[in-house]
Write a structure and sequence with these properties.
The chain is of the alpha+beta class. The chain is built from 24 helices and 12 strands.
Length: 554
C-alpha cells in the first residue's frame, strides 16, 4: 500500500486584497515577529510601491508562517499601534513582506500628526502622480491623501465639487485599484522553527536572510530576557578588545554551550526550553568567558582583533574553555596555543559538524577537569604545497595564519629595515601592507598567471613606500641593490623576519620563482608545525582545505 504523504504543512497560496490585509495586521491577526528588522524604506520606495499598485503592477508575494510557536512580536507598524494578538494558537507570523505591508498600512491608515511624516502621501488626479507633502490642510480637491481611500463615503464626498470628468474617472480608477488590488499570499504550515529558515531563504523576495539568531531572539524573548540585547551586551564588553565584530551565531554557540548543551544548532534551538533564570546565568557566564578568550587571543596568539581570527568558531570553542577553566596553568596555556595553530593549519573548523561539536564539548570539559591533558584535534595535516597553491585573500584562514606568524616574527621592511605595523595589517581593513616578494607585475611580464603569483607563499609585509620603489622590478635587481647598499647579512635578517629563509635567497637572485616558492613554502610549513606542536618528522598527507572564514553549513 502506498505511503501517505502529509501535506498539511505544505505552503498554501492565496490572493488577498491589500486593504483587508492591512487590517489583519492592525487588528493583531497577522503578527510581526520581533526578529523582523525595522522599517528601512526611503520615500522613493514608498512612492514606487503605491504607484505600482495604481498601475496594477505586481509587487511580489508575501509570506506567512502559521505556527503554534510563541514568539515575541512588535507592538506597532508604520507608527500605528497594532491590536492585541490572539490568545489562541496557531497564529500568523509575517516572515516576508514587512516593508511592503508597512507601507500599505502607513499610507492608508496614517492619522495626521507630524505633517512631514513619510506616510503623508497624496495622489494628484490631474497629473496622475503620487508624492509626499509637508502639510495636511487646504488641499485642492484634485490632491487626494491616500488615507481617504479607506473611507469611501468621505472620499467621494470630497470629490463632489469636481466637475472635470477626466479627474472623476481617474478618481474612480484610483479608488478601485486600491480596493481591488490583490497580493499573492503564501502561508507555511505549522513547521518547526528550524525548518522555517531554509524555506524563508528560498521563497523570500527581498533577499533578507532569516537566520537562526533572528528566530531564537524571538523564541526566547520575555520581559526578563532579550537575546538580542544579551548578545549586544557581550559585544559591547569586547569593544575595547576589538572582538565585537564576530557574528551573532558565534555567540549563540557559546551561549548554548554555557547553558549545558554543545555548539550545535540543536543545542541553540534548545535554548527556548530553558527558564529565564538559566538563560540569564548562561549569558553572564558567556560574557565573562568571551572577555578571557579575547585576552588569550591577544596575548598568547597575537590576534589583536576579530578580523585576524582564522575561524570565527575558534572563538566559540575558546569561550567554553575559559568558561569551564577560567585560570589555566602554564602547561594548559601551552596546549591551548598549540591547539589554536593546529586547528588553523589543519582547517579543522572548515568542516565542523554537529558530531564534532558534541565531541569537542566533552573534550573541553574533560580538559578543564584535568581528566585529559590534550585538546585532541582529529584532523590530518596538509602538505607544504598548501602555501604554494592557496590564493592570498582577506577571508582565507591560511592567509590569516601567515599574517599571524609574520606578526610573531616582528617583520622588518626589506628596503629600509623599519618595523612593520602589524596591528594595522592584522585589521584586514585593506591589504596595503601585504606585498609579493616576486612582484605580480614582474611575474605577469614573465607570463605567470595571477592564480600562481598571488599565493600565500609569495606574500611578505612591506611598507607602501617600499612597494612603490620595487614596483615590477625583478627580485635579482632589487635584492642586489639592497646587498650592495647594506650588505647580505642585513638583507638575510630582514628576509628571516618575513619568514623567508636564507636558502630562498639564491633562487630569488636567479629570478627562479618556482624554486623560491618551494623553498619558502617548506620553511613556512615547518614554522607552522612547530607552533602547532607537531613533530617535524611527522608524515603529512595532502588534504584539501576549505579555508574561508565562514560558518559551516551545520
Amino acid at each position: 500500500m502506498a505511503r501517505q504523504i502529509d501535506t498539511s504543512k505544505d505552503p498554501k497560496p492565496t490572493a488577498e486584497r491589500i486593504e483587508p490585509l492591512a487590517r489583519r495586521v492592525l487588528t493583531g491577526d497577522i503578527i510581526l515577529p520581533e526578529f523582523q528588522r525595522p522599517f528601512v524604506w526611503k520615500r522613493k520606495q514608498i512612492i514606487d510601491l503605491v504607484d505600482s499598485i495604481y498601475r496594477n503592477y505586481p509587487i511580489g508575494s508575501m509570506l506567512l508562517w502559521e505556527s503554534r510557536q510563541e514568539l515575541a512580536s512588535k507592538r506597532s507598524i508604520a507608527d500605528l499601534e497594532v491590536g492585541e494578538r490572539s490568545a489562541s494558537y496557531p497564529v500568523n507570523y509575517l516572515l516576508d513582506g514587512q516593508q511592503r505591508l508597512s507601507t500599505i498600512c502607513g499610507v492608508l491608515y496614517w492619522e495626521p500628526g507630524d505633517p512631514k511624516s513619510v506616510w503623508n502621501v497624496i495622489f494628484d488626479l490631474k497629473i496622475q502622480k503620487f508624492s509626499h507633502i509637508d502639510h495636511v490642510e487646504d488641499l485642492p480637491p484634485h490632491q487626494v491623501p491616500l488615507r481617504r481611500l479607506v473611507d469611501p463615503a468621505d472620499y467621494f464626498r470630497r470629490l463632489a465639487s469636481v466637475d472635470d470628468q477626466q479627474i472623476k474617472k481617474t478618481a474612480d480608477l484610483l479608488f478601485n485599484r486600491f480596493k481591488d488590488y490583490q497580493v499573492p499570499l503564501v502561508t507555511l504550515g505549522d513547521m518547526s522553527i528550524n525548518d522555517v529558515a531554509p524555506v524563508f531563504e528560498r521563497i523570500n523576495s527581498t533577499g533578507t536572510r532569516l537566520t537562526i539568531y533572528d528566530l531564537m531572539r524571538a523564541a526566547t524573548w520575555s520581559p526578563e530576557f532579550d537575546l538580542g540585547k544579551t548578545i549586544e551586551n557581550v559585544k559591547r564588553s569586547l569593544t575595547a578588545k576589538k572582538f565585537q565584530e564576530l557574528d551573532n551565531k558565534t555567540f549563540l554557540r557559546s551561549l548554548a554551550a554555557a547553558a549545558g548543551g554543545d555548539f550545535s544548532s540543536a543545542s541553540i534551538d534548545a535554548l527556548r526550553d530553558l527558564t529565564r533564570g538559566k538563560l540569564v546565568d548562561a549569558a553572564e557566564q558567556t560574557k565573562q568567558a568571551a572577555d578571557r578568550a579575547a585576552d588569550f587571543l591577544t596575548t598568547q596568539i597575537g590576534a589583536p582583533r576579530a578580523e585576524a581570527l582564522p575561524y570565527a568558531n575558534q572563538f566559540a570553542f575558546l569561550c567554553e574553555v575559559f568558561r569551564t577553566l577560567p585560570h589555566p596553568n602554564g602547561a594548559q596555556l601551552r596546549k591551548l596555543v598549540q591547539w589554536f595553530w593546529l586547528t588553523t593549519l589543519s582547517g579543522y573548523f572548515s568542516g565542523w559538524d554537529s558530531g564534532q561539536m558534541t565531541i569537542d564539548t566533552r573534550t573541553i570539559r574533560n580538559f578543564a577537569a584535568g581528566k585529559v591533558s590534550e585538546l585532541n584535534v582529529p584532523a590530518a595535516l596538509p602538505s607544504a604545497n598548501l602555501w604554494e597553491v592557496k590564493p592570498f585573500r582577506a577571508n582565507s584562514a591560511v592567509s590569516k595564519m601567515l599574517a599571524l606568524m609574520l606578526a610573531h616574527s616582528g617583520p622588518l621592511d626589506l628596503m629600509n629595515g623599519q618595523k612593520i605595523d602589524t596591528d594595522k595589517s592584522l585589521s584586514w581593513s585593506n591589504d596595503k601592507e601585504y606585498h609579493h616578494f616576486f612582484p605580480q607585475a614582474y611575474l605577469t611580464r614573465k607570463k605567470i598567471s595571477s592564480s600562481k603569483s598571488n599565493v600565500v607563499g609569495n606574500i611578505i609585509l612591506l611598507s607602501s613606500m617600499s612597494n612603490i620603489k620595487i614596483r615590477d622590478t625583478a627580485p635579482s635587481e632589487y635584492l642586489n641593490e639592497i646587498i650592495a647598499r647594506e650588505g647580505r647579512e642585513r638583507l638575510v635578517e630582514r628576509m628571516k623576519s618575513n619568514l623567508v629563509p636564507e636558502q630562498a635567497l639564491e633562487p630569488a637572485l636567479r629570478d627562479d620563482y618556482e624554486e623560491f616558492l618551494k623553498v619558502r613554502a617548506n620553511y613556512i610549513h615547518e614554522v607552522a608545525k612547530a607552533r602547532a606542536g607537531v613533530n617535524k618528522t611527522v608524515n603529512t598527507d595532502p588534504v584539501e582545505i576549505d579555508d574561508t572564514d565562514e560558518d559551516p553549513s551545520e
